[in-house]
Design goal:
Blueprint (H helix, E strand, L loop, with lengths): L2 H6 L5 E4 L6 E4 L6 H6 L2 E5 L1 H12 L18 E7 H10 L12 E8 L5 E9 L7 E11 L31 H5 E5 L1 H10 L3 H13 L5 H11 L7 E4 L2 H9 L8 E4 L16 H4 L6 E3 L2 E5 L2 E5 L2 E3 L11 E5 L12
Parallel strand pairs: 3-4, 3-10
Antiparallel strand pairs: 1-2, 4-5, 5-6, 6-7, 7-8, 9-10, 11-14, 12-13, 13-15
Helix pairs in contact: 3-4, 3-8
């Protein structure tokens, strides 16, 4: 079952109990977003190949999304995006992230609430590793963003909340880091109050904050990469699934209806396939050892060039048919991609 459907059908509140006082506290959880997901007008479900592409775009050494920040916008005031964890974790491991849950078969998702222009907003993260209501979780932290933030400024929060915020950044990127400039992370209201009343030591508070941050911060670059590709809409194969007939049958059998959504897949060629044989040059001199070359994203005017991650070295590892993809963006409102 898709994560959006799990949340839409979730009715169990998230309640914690103090082991000392036995006091119970209700915190924001997946069930609180049930009606929001049902009413959400735009829901995207990413294919595995598109998840891999977006993750590569997000975390490749050469990818600098800030250079394309003027192209980024959320395509609606309420947008849901979800994907399968397995290809996401597999791709993350290629870029140095520890694959602690390499066998994960769950799903992840993000709910984006944005301004009408799609340039400012709030992101909440969700995940599930089972079909039970208790397997569906919402991050205790949320992220707010403003793509129009200037250097030296802080992004404007979408509300008047006060409290501490966290900035995430890549030291090697400097001012070119879109997370540093345009994003801030904070606890959701109920979780903020809960931790404030807990009177944690600085060490405890730091450990909890780092853990909570890890449930959402790593999603953001992937979401941004998807939004960037979405700006070249005609280049992303999409299939709208209207489930009216299926839901009629489900309701007759006493089951809850499923939510309509749009399946989006990758426009790229499939990955290389293993093939035998040596290159002629290998008989005259020793070629380079087989190694992986990271992708590289470059913007030149109205064009984006993406050097696809590929293997370099012995031809025994396979043949890469194409390593460069070009997306052409004619104007902010009309984008026509070309793939080479």
């Amino acid at each position: 079952m898709r994560l959006a459907d799990q949340i839409a059908q979730c009715r169990t509140p998230f309640i914690v109990e103090s082991t000392i006082t036995k006091r119970q506290t209700r915190l924001l959880g997946a069930a609180d977003f049930s009606n929001v997901l049902v009413a959400c007008p735009t829901r995207y479900s990413l294919s595995d190949d598109l998840v891999s592409l977006c993750t590569a775009l997000a975390f490749s050494k050469g990818a600098r999304t800030l250079a394309c920040a003027d192209l980024l916008h959320v395509p609606g005031e309420h947008v849901w995006i979800e994907w399968c964890e397995a290809p996401w974790i597999k791709e993350l491991s290629r870029y140095g992230f520890r694959a602690e849950h390499a066998q994960a078969v769950g799903r992840r998702g993000a709910l984006i609430q944005s301004s009408p222009q799609g340039r400012r907003g709030l992101i909440k993260s969700f995940w599930a590793n089972g079909d039970n209501e208790l397997d569906v979780l919402a991050s205790s932290m949320e992220a707010y963003f403003d793509f129009d933030t200037e250097v030296g400024e802080d992004p404007a929060a979408p509300d008047d909340r006060n409290g501490s915020v966290i900035s995430v950044f890549d030291r090697t990127a400097g001012d070119a880091d879109i997370l540093r400039r345009c994003f801030r992370f904070r606890y959701e209201r109920s979780w903020q109050s809960y931790y404030e009343e807990a009177r944690l030591s600085p060490c405890q508070a730091d450990a909890i904050a780092r853990h909570a941050l890890g449930t959402i911060a790593v999603d953001i670059p992937v979401i941004l990469a998807f939004l960037l590709l979405l700006a070249t809409r005609p280049g992303l194969p999409r299939r709208a699934l209207m489930l009216e007939r299926l839901n009629q049958a489900r309701m007759k059998s006493g089951k809850k209806p499923l939510l309509d959504h749009i399946e989006v897949s990758s426009p790229l060629l499939p990955e290389y396939r293993s093939a035998g044989g040596d290159s002629p040059a290998s008989h005259s001199r020793r070629g380079p050892r087989l190694h992986h070359v990271r992708g590289h994203l470059v913007r030149r005017g109205s064009q984006l060039f993406w050097r696809v991650p590929h293997l370099r070295g012995s031809a025994r590892a396979g043949i890469v048919r194409s390593r460069t993809v070009t997306w052409t963006l004619d104007s902010p409102t009309e984008h026509r991609p070309s793939v080479s």
